[in-house]
């Protein structure tokens, strides 16, 4: 296409660009995340929180389910978007202790699009919907918290009881959960 | 300095140093490499770059043969010569600078030209595992190649001139066990389950926790019963779709193992048969007529053949490699265990047959060990044998080049350049100087008449484009470092393939044009 | 040892260049149309042509050698890494005694010693430590990197350095070509990128293989592979038990030893075989297998493209080479296509003219973006990078918490916000599939400058 290009034409030494100052340019990851963030279409049970509005790469997602086992709970997820976004997925951890078959006590979340099924076409919005779904339909088939999954599978009422107990703040088995009810 | 030696297993210093390549050809490949010795004939940039690609990964030893001394002209393209060696023997200089790359490697040199060695002590070459040569004249090339063919020493001959480079591998016979195919087909035997597998498949309930293999087996069995002609697996798109639909109809939710079974319909069947390459090996005379001198590969191949035909109903030994499948741990591990056990059993049978043959041949039992047989059985579907041709054949009437002539012209820019490089070598032999070294115009004419003569000697009525000959003369013998580095890198890898008996080498001529960044491999 | 000399007469006297000079000083039937055979070509390579090699690893070592012996006299090399034992099977400019030293410095020292006609300047730094003024000085940049992030960064840098004519076309003198090589085992690729003109790194981001990530629940509850056991220790057990009170360091043998032992325990518990020390290292450090030969081939292919671009003697490759020598030797060249919607290279800055930065507010600029027939945006979000290099969100109406925090900016003037003439804003809006760059131009600025 550009046959006429020759290296020797380049002017080096002395000559400099037209624009003022040495403004750093936004990275490709930055451009993409801005697009993702500004087009977030949150379900009414979800909200974002940007502790630093200038930093779009680190933020919180708060999910407050209005139905299902986790109704009245308030769950905070911490998003960290790396410089290789969207080639690599953001790192997402649950900051609220929760009794949930797909979330362990360290806050690891088992959601396929956060790991094995991530691809660059997906957006932050896809993850938000995935997380929200986890609270509506906890999935005992893919457990991270095996005890919780077993209870859900074998005794839904017991599971519901345990969830409520954990959300109110209290022990489920050996584990103590902090209260996370929506005030 | 390096970190203190840890107590952990496997971390010998050498194993650490060669870690990145051992991940490719394994400890056993590395051992073969470290036991090999090669000879480098002629100190050129392409020769030294090839040697570099062998010294770094830790070849056992190398000997450089060159009768000339270092001149200023030599410094421009060869990284393994430097001004401190001006006037000194080239073989010595480049041996020292190459060896310095890796103290594990033994370097040696002789200050003699290929011509001198061939005339005075031609058996010099016979003890090497492989000889690398470059930029010879035609006469020397043919004498050297013939000598090596007779001595059964593989030859890698490299050309690097201007923007052109070629590699010619001359090897009599090369047997490859581990070809490392890019896409390995898993051999699952669903159509012909062995007893242990059949029992397991029939005795296990298909739930959403079991590997897809069990799901597929369940619906394959149903499908098989619907076939009136006794077909064991779907043969075409339509039949595969029938099977897929049958599985999909039974899905309740989106069970992952069912999804995986549907996906696997396309690739799960058909393995375990004798592929064409292996059939040729079984029918090879070398497989049929074993002797005390037979390569162990052929003894194992014959035992394999016996097993397949007489003991396993025409099926290959089971490789015993299972792909990962979504499932709970126990059901997957149980299935994996069944495949692995059967693979061991099959390999043991082949091993015992090997021992029978060794006894018949009065060879010691440890000539073949169990590990090698297991490897051979695992890789049975991909075994291959390469039978090379003599370089000299390219100069005879039966030349395979004839197939490449169309409309009286040598077809393809790469073929033409390869032929022009041969004409260049005859030019060197006949005129004793380099085409285009002083005058380009005059030498184009001379090169053209040589090429024409060579064509007619081969019984070919064809011409070669003037532009190609012009380009060759324009170089005036220039060897460009980057082209040599490209060819040297490729050539080193071909040597490693030959020595480790892993991966498939070229058969037999690789031609590279750096102007167009195109390449081709021809069997000449 | 002779001293590197820019004196043209001395260059031509040096017999080491006899071969190269045939190629550069003789006409030929396959040469590029605008090639002029002359001794100026070698002189240019030896004196004025300045190249940057990024990475002094497997490809970098080869590149420095190849370029030095192809006549280039002025090379710079950047690498932030130090030498390790496992480098020595291919990074041939380093010896055992160099372990722990800077790759860039060591490589430069070796080349400078061996090839007296070449001067290599090392930078023991990260590419991100340098700005535009540094990269500006090079005619061409060659990358031998193993990191996608680094490739994306330098790609973005070179694109941001493009200058445009008034009609929006690229000023070709501002193009710095980027030659990029990559290898993995017996496979590799080399590509030529003319920023703004041909497919860039972002255009073809999907050519990089995705990272292997196993499902977390498999790792936690239904492991089947040795890798699952290793990942479990790495992702879950390490944080839980925090054996050394620090994050996992793949280069610390104690750490790897701990992971190995725990992974082995876990594998035994589940009857899984195949956990080896080498596998543990590979999984923890994401080790990519590497051999000398593939690096040599790919670096040579890159060096040849550099040579063609610098001398114009032949047409450079258009634009992507795939190489593989698992089965025979296979090469394939094709033209990777520029992506029209590429975030990075299809993003020509759009100029917005502002009369007076001290009276024009951010709201005025937003209004202009919405009302002007050229943009017709609905609800734009604006960010920028400030002078200190920090990202700043100017306004974003679609996210509540950010809207609240940035609302006050609307009524501030551009001057008050610290925006300058030529400042680039990143603008996203529902009307456009990707982010765009808007460049502010302050009217009357030139008059003030006089």
From TrEMBL, chain A:
Q: Which Gene3D superfamilies match?
A: Ubiquitin Conjugating Enzyme
Please, which domain of life does this record's source organism belong to? Eukaryota
The chain positions of domain UBC core read 28-172
User: Which EC numbers does the record give?
Assistant: 2.3.2.34
One GO BP on record is: target-directed miRNA degradation
GO molecular function, a single term: NEDD8 conjugating enzyme activity
Known pathway: Protein modification; protein neddylation
What is the uppermost EC class here?
transferase
Record InterPro entries: Ub_conjugating_enzyme (IPR050113), UBC (IPR000608), UBQ-conjugating_AS (IPR023313), UBQ-conjugating_enzyme/RWD (IPR016135)
Q: What segment(s) does the record annotate as region Disordered?
A: 8-28
Reactions it catalyzes = [E1 NEDD8-activating enzyme]-S-[NEDD8 protein]-yl-L-cysteine + [E2 NEDD8-conjugating enzyme]-L-cysteine = [E1 NEDD8-activating enzyme]-L-cysteine + [E2 NEDD8-conjugating enzyme]-S-[NEDD8-protein]-yl-L-cysteine
Give the signal peptide range: none
Q: Which UniProt keywords apply?
A: ATP-binding, Nucleotide-binding, Transferase, Ubl conjugation pathway
Coiled-coil spans in chain: none
Residues at the catalytic site: 110 (glycyl thioester intermediate)
Q: Which family does it belong to?
A: Belongs to the ubiquitin-conjugating enzyme family.
| Protein name according to UniProt | E2 NEDD8-conjugating enzyme
What is the species listed in this Swiss-Prot or TrEMBL entry? Drosophila ananassae
Its encoding gene is what? Dana\GF24700
Automatic annotation (TrEMBL), chain B:
Q: Name one GO molecular function term.
A: NEDD8 activating enzyme activity
Question: The organism sits in which domain of life?
Answer: Eukaryota
Domain THIF-type NAD/FAD binding fold, by residue range, is: 18-517
Give a Gene Ontology cellular component term annotated to this protein: NAE1-UBA3 complex
In terms of InterPro entries, this protein maps to: APP-BP1, ThiF/MoeB/HesA, ThiF_NAD_FAD-bd, Ubiquitin-activating_enz
Per UniProt, the keywords (alphabetical) are: Coiled coil, Ubl conjugation pathway
Metabolic or biological pathway, per its Swiss-Prot or TrEMBL entry: Protein modification; protein neddylation
GO BP, one example? protein neddylation
What Gene3D superfamilies does this protein map onto?
NAD(P)-binding Rossmann-like Domain
Q: Which Pfam families match?
A: ThiF
Coiled-coil region: 237-268
- Record family assignment: Belongs to the ubiquitin-activating E1 family. ULA1 subfamily.
Write down what this protein is called: NEDD8-activating enzyme E1 regulatory subunit
* Species of origin: Drosophila ananassae
State the gene name recorded for this protein. Answer: Dana\GF23890
UniProtKB/TrEMBL annotation, chain C:
**Where does the record place the E2 binding domain?**
354-443
Task: Kindly state which keywords UniProt assigns to this record, in alphabetical order.
Answer: ATP-binding, Ligase, Nucleotide-binding, Ubl conjugation pathway
Under SMART domains, the record lists: E2_bind
The residues annotated as the active site are 217
EC code? 6.2.1.64
Give me the reactions it catalyses: ATP + [NEDD8 protein] + [E1 NEDD8-activating enzyme]-L-cysteine = AMP + diphosphate + [E1 NEDD8-activating enzyme]-S-[NEDD8 protein]-yl-L-cysteine
Q: List the molecular function annotations (GO) for this entry.
A: ATP binding; NEDD8 activating enzyme activity
Q: Which GO terms describe its biological process?
A: negative regulation of smoothened signaling pathway; positive regulation of peptidoglycan recognition protein signaling pathway; protein neddylation
What's one Pfam family here?
ThiF
Can you supply one Gene Ontology CC term for this chain's record?
A: cytoplasm
Family according to the record = Belongs to the ubiquitin-activating E1 family. UBA3 subfamily.
In its UniProt entry, what is this protein called?
Answer: NEDD8-activating enzyme E1 catalytic subunit
- Per the UniProt record, the source organism is Drosophila ananassae (Fruit fly)
Whichever gene encodes this chain, its name is Dana\GF13717
């Amino acid at each position: 296409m550009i046959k006429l290009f020759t290296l020797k034409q380049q002017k080096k030494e002395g000559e400099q660009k037209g624009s003022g100052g040495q403004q750093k340019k936004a990275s490709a990851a930055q451009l993409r995340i801005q697009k993702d963030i500004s087009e977030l279409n949150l379900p009414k049970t979800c909200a974002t929180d940007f502790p630093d509005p200038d930093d779009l790469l680190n933020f919180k997602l708060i999910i407050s389910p209005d139905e299902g086992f986790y109704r009245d709970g308030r769950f905070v997820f911490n998003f960290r978007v790396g410089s290789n976004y969207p080639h690599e997925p953001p790192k997402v951890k649950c900051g609220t202790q929760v009794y949930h078959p797909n979330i362990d006590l360290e806050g690891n979340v088992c959601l396929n699009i956060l790991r094995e099924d991530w691809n660059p076409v997906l957006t932050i919005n896809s993850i938000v919907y995935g997380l929200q779904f986890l609270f509506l339909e906890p999935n005992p088939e893919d457990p991270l918290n095996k005890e919780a999954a077993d209870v859900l599978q074998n005794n839904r009422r017991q599971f519901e009881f345990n969830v409520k107990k954990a959300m109110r703040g209290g022990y489920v088995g050996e584990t103590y959960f902090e209260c996370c009810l929506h005030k | 300095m390096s970190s203190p030696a840890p107590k952990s297993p496997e971390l010998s210093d050498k194993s650490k140093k060669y870690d990145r390549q051992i991940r490719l050809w394994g400890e056993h490949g590395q051992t073969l490499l470290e036991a090999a010795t090669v000879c480098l004939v002629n100190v050129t940039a392409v020769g030294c770059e090839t040697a570099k690609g062998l010294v770094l990964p830790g070849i056992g030893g190398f000997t450089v043969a060159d009768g000339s001394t270092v001149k200023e002209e030599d410094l421009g393209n060869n990284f393994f010569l430097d001004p401190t060696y001006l006037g000194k023997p080239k073989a010595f200089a480049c041996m020292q600078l190459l060896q310095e790359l890796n103290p594990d490697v033994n370097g040696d040199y002789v200050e003699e030209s290929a011509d001198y060695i061939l005339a005075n002590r031609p058996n010099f070459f016979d003890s090497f595992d492989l000889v690398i040569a470059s930029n010879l004249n035609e006469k020397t090339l043919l004498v050297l190649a013939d000598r090596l063919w007779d001595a059964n020493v593989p030859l890698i001959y490299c050309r690097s001139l201007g923007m052109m480079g070629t590699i010619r591998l001359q090897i009599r016979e090369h047997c490859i066990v581990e070809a490392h195919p890019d896409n390995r087909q898993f051999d699952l035997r669903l159509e012909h389950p062995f007893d242990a597998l059949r029992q397991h498949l029939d005795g296990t309930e298909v739930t959403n926790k079991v590997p897809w293999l069990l799901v597929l087996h369940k619906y394959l069995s149903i499908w098989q019963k619907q076939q009136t002609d006794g077909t064991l697996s779907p043969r075409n798109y339509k039949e595969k779709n029938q099977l897929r639909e049958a599985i999909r109809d039974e899905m309740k939710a989106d069970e992952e193992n069912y999804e995986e079974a549907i996906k696997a319909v396309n690739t799960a069947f058909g393995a375990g048969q004798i592929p064409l390459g292996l059939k040729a090996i079984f029918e090879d005379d070398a497989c049929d007529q074993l002797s005390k001198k037979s390569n162990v590969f052929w003894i194992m191949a014959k035992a394999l053949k016996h097993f397949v035909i007489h003991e396993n109903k025409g099926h290959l030994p089971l490789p015993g490699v299972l792909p990962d499948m979504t499932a709970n741990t126990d059901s997957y591990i149980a299935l994996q265990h069944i495949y692995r056990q059967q693979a061991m059993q099959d390999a043991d049978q082949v091993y015992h047959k090997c021992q029978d043959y060794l006894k018949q041949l009065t060879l010691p039992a440890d000539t073949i060990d169990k590990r090698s047989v297991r490897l051979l059985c695992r890789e049975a579907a991909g075994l291959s044998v390469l039978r090379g041709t003599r370089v000299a054949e390219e100069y005879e009437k039966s030349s395979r080049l004839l197939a490449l002539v169309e409309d009286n012209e040598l077809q393809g820019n790469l073929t033409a350049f390869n032929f022009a490089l041969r004409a260049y070598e005859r030019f060197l032999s006949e005129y004793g100087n380099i085409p285009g070294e002083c005058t380009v115009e005059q030498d184009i004419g001379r090169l053209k008449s040589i090429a024409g003569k060579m064509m007619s000697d081969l019984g070919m009525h064809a011409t070669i484009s003037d532009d190609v000959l012009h380009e060759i003369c324009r170089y005036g013998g220039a060897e460009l470092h980057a082209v040599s580095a490209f060819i040297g890198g490729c050539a080193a890898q071909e040597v490693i393939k030959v020595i480790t008996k892993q991966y498939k080498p070229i058969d037999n001529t690789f031609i590279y044009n750096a102007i167009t960044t195109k390449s081709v491999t021809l069997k000449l | 040892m002779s001293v590197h000399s820019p004196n043209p007469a001395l260059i031509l006297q040096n017999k080491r260049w006899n071969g190269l000079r045939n190629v550069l000083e003789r006409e030929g039937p396959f040469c590029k149309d605008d090639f002029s055979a002359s001794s100026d070509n070698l002189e240019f390579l030896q004196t004025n042509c300045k190249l940057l090699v990024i990475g002094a690893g497997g490809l970098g070592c080869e590149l420095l050698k190849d370029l030095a012996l192809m006549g280039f006299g002025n090379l710079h090399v950047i690498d932030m890494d130090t030498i390790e034992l496992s480098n020595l099977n291919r990074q041939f400019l380093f010896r055992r005694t160099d372990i722990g030293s800077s790759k860039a410095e060591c490589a430069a020292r070796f080349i400078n010693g061996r090839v007296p006609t070449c001067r290599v300047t090392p930078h023991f730094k990260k590419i991100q430590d340098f700005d535009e003024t540094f990269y500006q000085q090079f005619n061409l940049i060659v990358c031998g990197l193993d990191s996608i992030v680094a490739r994306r960064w330098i790609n973005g840098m070179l694109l941001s350095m493009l200058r445009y004519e008034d009609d929006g076309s690229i000023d070709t003198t501002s193009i710095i070509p980027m030659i990029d090589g990559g290898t993995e085992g017996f496979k590799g690729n080399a590509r030529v990128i003319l920023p703004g003109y041909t497919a860039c790194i972002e255009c073809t981001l999907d050519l990089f293989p995705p990272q292997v990530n196993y499902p977390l629940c498999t790792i936690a509850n239904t492991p089947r592979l040795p890798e699952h056991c290793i990942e479990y220790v790495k992702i879950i057990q390490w944080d839980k038990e925090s054996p050394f009170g620090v994050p996992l360091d793949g280069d610390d043998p104690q750490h790897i030893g701990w992971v190995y032992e725990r992974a082995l325990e876990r594998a035994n518990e589940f009857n899984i075989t195949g956990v080896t020390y080498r596998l543990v290292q590979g999984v923890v450090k994401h080790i990519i297998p590497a051999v000398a030969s593939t690096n040599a081939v790919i670096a040579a292919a890159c060096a040849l493209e550099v040579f063609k671009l610098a001398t114009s003697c032949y047409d450079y490759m258009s634009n992507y080479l795939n190489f593989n020598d698992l089965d025979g030797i296979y090469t394939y060249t094709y033209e990777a296509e520029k992506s029209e919607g590429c975030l990075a290279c299809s993003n020509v800055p759009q100029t917005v003219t502002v009369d007076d930065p001290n009276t024009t507010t951010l709201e005025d600029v937003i209004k202009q973006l919405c009302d002007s027939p050229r943009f017709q945006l609905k609800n734009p979000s604006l960010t920028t990078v400030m002078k200190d290099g920090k990202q700043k969100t100017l306004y974003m109406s679609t996210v509540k918490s950010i809207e609240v925090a940035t609302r006050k900016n609307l009524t501030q003037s551009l001057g008050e916000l610290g925006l300058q003439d030529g400042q680039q804003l990143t603008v996203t809006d529902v009307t456009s599939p990707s982010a765009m760059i808007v460049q502010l131009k302050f009217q009357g600025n030139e008059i003030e400058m006089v």
